[in-house]
Each structure stands twice: as C-alpha cells, then as structure tokens.
Amino acid sequence: MSIYSRILGTGGFLPKKVVTNRDLERMLDTTDTWIQERTGIKQRHVVSDGETCVDLAEPAARRAIDAAGITPGEIDLIVMATTTPDQIFPSSACALQNRLDIHGCPAFDIQAVCTGFVYALGVADKFIRTGSASKALVVGAEAFSRIIDWTDRGTCIIFGDGAGAVVIGADHEPGIITSCLHADGAYRELLHVPAGVGNGYNGALFVEMKGNEVFRVAVTTLGRIVDEVLTANGMERSDIDWLVPHQANMRIIQATARKLDLPMEQVVVTVDTHGNTSAASVPLAFDQAVRDGRIQRGQVVLMEAFGGGFTWGSVLLRY
Length: 319
Ligand code: COA
What we know:
With 319 residues, the chain is an alpha/beta fold. It has helices spanning 21-27, 32-39, 53-68, 92-99, 116-129, 211-232, 250-259, 271-274, 281-291; strands spanning 4-13, 18-20, 43-45, 77-81, 107-110, 135-142, 162-171, 176-183, 191-192, 208-209, 242-245, 300-307, 311-318. It contains 9 helices and 13 strands.
C-alpha cells in the first residue's frame, strides 16, 4: 500500500512589535496610500531587540505539535525554511530541535527564500512517502526585518517577520497530492543579499531588489504554476477550494487568483497585516485559515510561492 503524508496540525507566531505604514511615513518619503495601492500592505510585525528567528519558530512549532495531538518526542524529522538563521551554523533546525528537547532525528535548514516553506514541505513529504520518517515538523520562520535597509523605501515597506509550522504524518491516503519545485539561478541578482562568506563584498547585509522586474516575472511564473499543477493532476480549476499564496503583494495574489478563476473569498490573504514574511508567509496564512475555520478537513488547497533565486513552487493537498 502506498504511503502519503497528511497535515496533522498547524501553528503560527508573530512578534509583538507592529510597524504601520503611518510609522513608515514618519521615517521615509512614502505614504500609507502609496504602499496600500502598490502592495495591499497596511502593517507588518517585526522582531524586537534580541528576538531571533528561532524565538519565533519555537512557539509556532509547539502550537503545530499541540494541534497535531502528539508530543515533541514523536517527531522524527525537522525541516526548517529560513533566510535569516540565528547563526551561519549550526542550522536553525538544530537550534529548534534542542529547544523542543528532541534528540537524534535529522534536522536541517532549507534556503529557498520566499519559496522556502513550499520546498521544505515538498522535501518532508518525500521523506514520509519513502518511509524515512513518520511524523515531520516543517517550519518557515524569518526575522527578515534584520536584513532590511530601513532607509530604502523600495524594499522596507514590503517585508515583515513571523513563523508558521505544520506537522505532517504518514497516512494511507493523501494528504499531499503533489509538490512541484523549481529554480532558475539566472535571476539571482534581481532579488538578493550580496553579502556572503569571503565573496569580496564589503557592503551591508541588506536585501537589494529590482522590484518591478521581480513583479513581472512573479506574475508570469505563478500563472505557469497553476497550469502545471492542474495538468499534472488531471484537475480542473473548480477542484481547488482554497488558494494559499505566498503573501508577496496583493496585486500578484489577485493575478494568480484570476488565473485560477477563484473569487478572492477563496484566497487566504494576510499580506495586509503581515506584509511579506518570506518563508513564513504560506504556513502563517494556512494556520490562520485553519484556525478560523475557513479551511475544512477534506478540502483541496493549493499553496504556491515565488522568491529569490529565483525559486518557485507549489504544493497541492487535501487537508
Ligand atoms: N513610496 C513612494 N514612492 C515609492 C516607494 C515608496 N515606498 N517605493 C518606490 N517609489 C517610487 C520609485 O522611486 C519610483 O519613482 P520615480 O518614478 O520617480 O522613479 C516610483 O515609485 C515607481 O517605482 P517602481 O519601483 O516602478 O514601483 P512599482 O509600481 O513597481 O512598485 C513595488 C514597487 C516594490 C511595490 C513593486 O515593484 C513590487 O511589489 N514588486 C514585487 C516585489 C516582491 O514581491 N518581492 C518579493 C518577491 S518574493
């Protein structure tokens, strides 16, 4: 009998501190109206002094474990997606594993920027399908505000911090139907942090982005993702109950929903209050819609994301 993975529980966590567009108006040459019209964002949560990515990941993970009705000791795989790890190494997944008092199971980070959680879920699903794990904790967490230049109005208005998590477990029925993962490094300089280990770059550790070029490629690519996932599974657009998109920008989300012929009532949107939390955006949005009762057991959900690399991908699942 085939093995599949199914989502057992979800969790999310946002740092307390909120930065509104009005706050940004006081710091930069921008306006609340401009930000809302171009991105749909009203506010974002950001870490306080001393608060790190793993500080956000831990409560999100604990909530997902509680919702799954299991104990941390039953977890036999941890995959954590982040672009803003607490340290270069050991991985944030190892730090999280230690906080949860789990010992011995594989734990590793995935770096696919805003597509990170979709990559992590796709990888964890394959561990479960091959029988290499039976209960996996999959986390997307970011202290993204730490790599933002808060004087650059082209980037700082967009991003925020947070963490989302799911626990997936082995089952005889899907669960996760398919995951499609892609990358094209030819685009890496359109959205990047040039700083690295000994690469000769001496500038600050900040995100640089060619916003309008990123926007154009994101819209076309996410349109292709929709065709890819439907064709691969012999499904119609009407088979999708919920779209849980990466929360990059309201206009990008609306374009993908149009491609799916989905009314916005079937699209989970958090970009207005969270901003773009990179690898945390999809699991945070998913957790919110599960907890408020919108996404129900048995419904079909399409998660999709696009990010630096470029990377992009989707996970199609029955909740
Ligand atoms: N407030 C006011 N004006 C701003 C501004 C801000 N926060 N940021 C940029 N501008 C100005 C620019 O300086 C430019 O002025 P100019 O015409 O005098 O030169 C003008 O607005 C248009 O700039 P442009 O960059 O073309 O704007 P845009 O319509 O493309 O919107 C983004 C900018 C960043 C909101 C938009 O490109 C975007 O959302 N891109 C996708 C980014 C993304 O999702 N990244 C993450 C992917 S995972």
